[in-house]
Amino acid sequence: MKAAGVKAIKEELNSRSREELSDLCLKLSKFKKENKELLTYLLFEADNENLFIISIQEEIDLEFENINRKSYYFIKKSIRKILRNTKKNIRYSKKKQTEVELLLHFCKKLKKFDPSISNSIPLTRIFDREILKVEKILNTLHPDLKYDYETEIESILEL
User: Fold this and answer.
1) How many CB atoms lie within 10 A of CB 47?
2) Which of 80, 88, 134, 137 is deepest in the core (most CB within 10 A)?
């Protein structure tokens, strides 16, 4: 089956009744976990972005505590999983400030991680790549926010 385009889906949704839309959303949420997570964000968390950021940061903290530290191979796999989950949550929000906050928190946790990431080239590259992404996003933000985040990046790099 070939998926319809966004325009066609939008037109079809506009022609449906409120009850049909509700049923479609419920069916969509039962189909895949990510759909349910997106609906949860849109319905319950989109109104309070700060609370959403805090909850994701706590999730990142918890995942960092549960990393298997037996070898750098397992550490790398776990770090990539944490980053993948973080980016998934960033996609739900689509706000640049939220993206910067979450990526900076991830980088801070990664930099403080024990054993040190400086002993692993792949982990160092992940860190450097995410810092570069944050710096690129900062160019689109308000100058006051940009300054605040730049000082935070400097403090992370000094760790």
Assistant:
1) 9
2) 134
Single-letter residue type at 81: K
At 112, list the tokens.
């403080």
Rounded distance, CA 91 to CA 46, Å?
Answer: 12
pTM for this model (two decimals): 0.88
CA distance 75 to 69: 6
**CA distance linking residue 138 with residue 96, whole number of Å:** 8
CA distances from 68 to 59, 63, 79, 115, 117 (A): 16, 10, 10, 11, 14
What are the backbone angles phi and psi of residue 120, rounded to the nearest 5°?
-130, 115
Model pLDDT for residues 30-75, shown as the tens digit of each residue: 888 898 888 889 888 889 999 999 999 999 999 999 999 999 999 9
